[in-house]
Specification:
Helix content of chain B: over 70%
Strand order of the largest sheet of chain A: 2-1-5-4-3-8-9
Distance between the termini of chain A: 23 Å
Order of helices and strands of chain A: HHEEHEHEHEHEEEEHEEH
Largest sheet of chain A: 7 strands, mixed
Structural class of chain A: alpha+beta
Order of helices and strands of chain B: HHHHHHHHHHHHHH
Radius of gyration of chain B: 22 Å
Bound molecules: protoporphyrin IX containing FE
Oligomer: heterodimer
Largest sheet of chain B: none
CATH class of chain B: Mainly Alpha
CATH topology of chain B: Cytochrome C Oxidase, Chain A
Number of strands of chain B: 0
Strand content of chain B: under 5%
Helix content of chain A: 25-40%
Shape of chain A: elongated
CATH class of the largest domain in chain A: Alpha Beta
Shape of chain B: globular
Structural class of chain B: mainly alpha
CATH architecture of chain B: Up-down Bundle
Number of domains of chain A: 2
């Protein structure tokens, strides 16, 4: 009998080991190059800021309150205005009691403080204490610190850039980045993150994930048990069947 | 009765396990000194050491229990030497692969290799696949070994008798007695078998994703459940195998009558068999997508899996010792100390398995604290007790009363072992996180505690080395002898 077990095992091991070569797996570089994830949990560089209230360092601001940093330039004819407008709207409708400031920084070296001030006025935010409009002499360091690289397009005389929000917590660490025009829920999770609240996250099941433990119905918000849970029962079922089969033979003691 | 060849293979297990143990302890000490900033190793080296250390330790003490019960099983049923040799060969091959993967391939996803970490390649590209192959080799070897042992038991006992179920029927058949050793061995090997089948399913899912070229993705929650179903169960069942040897040998070496399977012993161990299988849910308290009901099952199964068997064992051992003249030898002192370590570690585990505490203790050093206690000062000592006893059997020597020199060695072992885990407990209580190569400066006392832990562990290692020489030299004798020794059963 043990001979047959041995044979079976050897065969299984050999079968398993034949197609084993020549596979390539993604490397760490392939996986971690999503720009929304890069630089998250790293400490922000302490850049100097020029604002209407005076000159500060970034650390002077985040030491008081966590910061949502938005990156724009004043001559922007593209995404900057809708981006700021939407941010403003979302923040108003979220009516959030959590503490934070919104720091709008220009990444264009040509922008002056008065131009930033006019931008604030355009959104009627010049007297809003929560919003700070600023320029910095260290734009390049800022861009490296947050992995944000706008490119100058000379034909349109515009920067080609993403809409980027960077959440910085009270210790100066980047807690979350949001790329693009995002909904209120995403913004709320950024605000929670920089206020050190636990933010639930779970990768969405892909189409090729056959064995999920639960299926989630976004319409009802309910979870239903799924095929994966059956797999969890398999080891016990297999063992039980094996035992019943082995136990059905008559032992010598009786 | 074990044959000479069976003694030889058991001897080979003992020597191999002890050599690997010494090396794995040195890896542990290196990690702790690094955390204490006494030495400086790179993070990759730290995590490779951590992975190899965890895998080796869990593996060797599981097979130590298996080899011990297999040896003692020969007293009750017919055992197979070729099966044992087969398991040994596959174990050695598996360990070699995993060490190569860890040290040359720099694979460092931790001993739990939690999905999707093995696919986030931060090491040699071949290492992931060979890691899975190494585990497959071990899994196949141990799976066949477990099934073989269950078959051997069921050739003599019915399924019901092997679980002592006759105690639960009205017309209790007293003519059929299930020795506690058979009951506990059966309960533990069934658990090991279930955990190994879980490992096979887990590996199949890993291979499926690996070879699917992106057409198949695993569900992280399912993979985490499977990982801890396997990992938690095998680590715990290894301990129960140690207890099986305690039930068999402690009365014998203490000069007392054998333990009997009473109804409460049967209840205790049957509870363990059922509940230990669902206790692993306590590893997923932080997984908010897991329904709350599962978390509660995890908490209560943790209580019911350990408390009945612990209570029954403690009562049995107290009855054995209390008011009786005991011949204290190295073997029964090791068993007794192991029991103390198991209980202390078990209390630490139950504190952590309680949901309201786990919110604070989760992934802090409290976790290595409790599992190192019931391993370093529990299961390891059960197996060492067996090794000392078996070595005496092989060499044909009798287990003598404990000598002064042995008492000194044991004292160093106790101070070193408990000191080492105490540093983990204190750090855990201060919320120092586990699996950090270097601690952030905010944890002001973490490095000092790590350094102290390393020195205590060094003392423990010295004690092990002092005990080991005698065991190994006696074990080696069995390879030169051609006759069964006069004292062997
Ligand atoms: C004196 C002997 C030992 C020393 C010095 C030692 C040291 C260590 C250290 C420093 C860690 C890393 C802790 C962390 O920061 O998370 C660790 C982890 C671990 N140890 Fe030990 N250990 C010893 C004995 C054992 C024994 C006997 C076992 C099991 C039977 C064991 C199993 C493990 C496991 C499973 C891990 C977790 C590895 C991982 O997280 O992937 N150790 N040990």
């Amino acid at each position: 009998m043990f001979k047959s077990i041995f044979f079976f095992t050897t065969l299984t091991s050999l079968t398993l080991s034949t197609p084993l070569f020549g596979q390539t797996l993604p490397t760490a570089g392939d996986i971690y190059n999503f720009s929304e994830e890069s630089k998250v949990y790293t400490k922000m560089i302490d850049i100097p800021l020029n604002t209407m209230e005076g000159n500060f360092h970034l650390s002077d601001l985040y030491a008081q309150k966590p910061i949502i940093m938005a990156l724009v330039f004043t001559r922007c004819t593209g995404i900057c205005s809708p981006f700021l407008l939407q941010l403003h709207d979302h923040l108003r409708s979220l009516d959030n009691k959590r503490k934070f400031s919104v720091l709008v920084v220009s990444f264009d070296p040509k922008d002056s403080l008065s131009e930033m001030q006019s931008l604030a006025a355009r959104f009627q935010l010049q007297n809003n204490k929560q919003w700070i409009f600023a320029t910095t002499p260290q734009i390049d360091s800022l861009k490296t610190a947050i992995d944000f690289y706008p490119t100058w397009d000379s034909t349109t005389a515009q920067f080609d850039h993403e809409a980027l929000l960077v959440g910085i917590n009270e210790n100066g660490y980047i807690g979350k980045k949001l790329l693009g025009m995002r909904d209120e829920r995403a913004l709320l999770s950024l605000i929670k993150e920089i206020n050190n609240e636990f933010v639930f996250s779970y990768p969405l099941p892909a189409k090729n994930t056959i064995f999920s433990c639960f299926t989630y119905d976004p319409a009802t918000g309910k979870k239903k048990p799924s095929l994966g849970l059956l797999i969890l029962l398999l080891p016990a079922i297999i063992t039980l069947s094996l035992l019943l089969w082995l136990g059905s033979r008559k032992p010598k003691l009786n | 009765m074990p044959t000479l060849s069976f003694k030889r293979i058991t001897s080979a297990w003992i020597i191999t396990i002890l050599v690997l143990f010494v090396l794995a302890i040195s890896f542990g000490i290196t990690m702790r000194f690094n955390q204490g900033r006494d030495i400086d190793i790179s993070p990759v080296t730290f995590y490779s050491l951590m992975t190899v250390h965890g895998l080796t330790m869990i593996g060797i003490w599981a097979v130590a229990g298996m080899a011990a019960v297999n040896y003692l099983l020969a007293r009750y049923v017919k055992v197979s030497t070729s099966l044992n040799v087969f398991a040994f060969v596959l174990t050695v091959v598996g360990v070699v692969i995993l060490w190569v993967v860890g040290f040359i391939g720099k694979f460092h996803a931790g001993w739990t290799f939690l999905y999707p970490l093995p696919f986030r390649v931060a090491w040699e590209e071949w290492a992931t696949l060979w890691f899975l192959i190494g585990l497959t080799v071990l899994g196949v070897g141990w799976l066949v070994w477990s099934v073989g042992m269950i078959m051997q038991i069921l050739k003599k006992y019915t399924l019901g008798q092997s679980f002592a179920w006759q105690h639960f029927t009205k017309k209790h058949d007293v003519a059929v007695e299930t020795p506690p050793f058979i009951l506990i061995t059966m309960v533990s090997i069934i658990g090991i078998l279930i955990s190994l089948i879980t490992a096979v399913i887990l590996l199949v899912l890993f291979y499926a994703e690996y070879f699917s070229n992106g057409t198949f993705t695993n569900d992280p929650l399912l993979m985490k459940n499977l990982t801890y179903f396997f990992g938690h169960t095998i680590a715990n069942e290894a301990l129960y195998l140690g207890l099986a040897t305690l039930y068999e040998l402690l009365p014998e070496v203490s000069g007392r009558p054998k333990f009997k399977t009473t109804w409460y012993v049967a209840v205790g161990w049957n509870c363990t068999m059922v509940f230990v299988l669902t206790a692993f849910f306590h590893h997923l308290y932080m997984d908010f997508v897991q329904p709350y009901g599962f978390q509660l099952v995890g908490q209560f199964a943790s209580y019911f899996a350990s408390i009945p068997s612990a209570a029954v064992t403690i009562v049995s051992v107290i009855v054995l010792i209390y008011g009786n003249k005991i011949k204290w030898s190295l073997t029964n002192i090791l068993f007794f100390l192991g029991l103390v370590g198991w209980i202390i570690g078990g209390v630490g585990a139950l504190i952590d398995a309680t949901i309201s505490n786990n919110i604070i203790l989760h992934n802090t050093l409290w976790v290595p604290a409790h599992f190192h206690t019931y391993n370093v000062m529990g299961n390891v000592l059960f197996s060492l007790a067996f090794f000392v006893w078996a070595a005496n059997q092989f060499a044909g020597t009798d287990s003598k009363n404990i000598s002064k020199a042995q008492l000194v060695k044991l004292s160093i072992l106790v101070i070193g072992g408990f000191g080492f885990v105490l540093m983990f407990y204190i750090a855990g209580a201060y919320s120092v996180p586990r699996r950090y190569a270097l601690y952030p400066e905010e944890f002001t006392s973490a490095a000092i505690l790590a350094s102290a832990g390393a020195w205590f562990a060094l003392a423990y290692l010295i004690a092990i080395l002092l005990l080991l020489g005698n065991i190994v030299s006696k074990c080696l004798k069995v390879f030169s002898s051609s006759q069964p020794s006069p004292l062997s059963h």
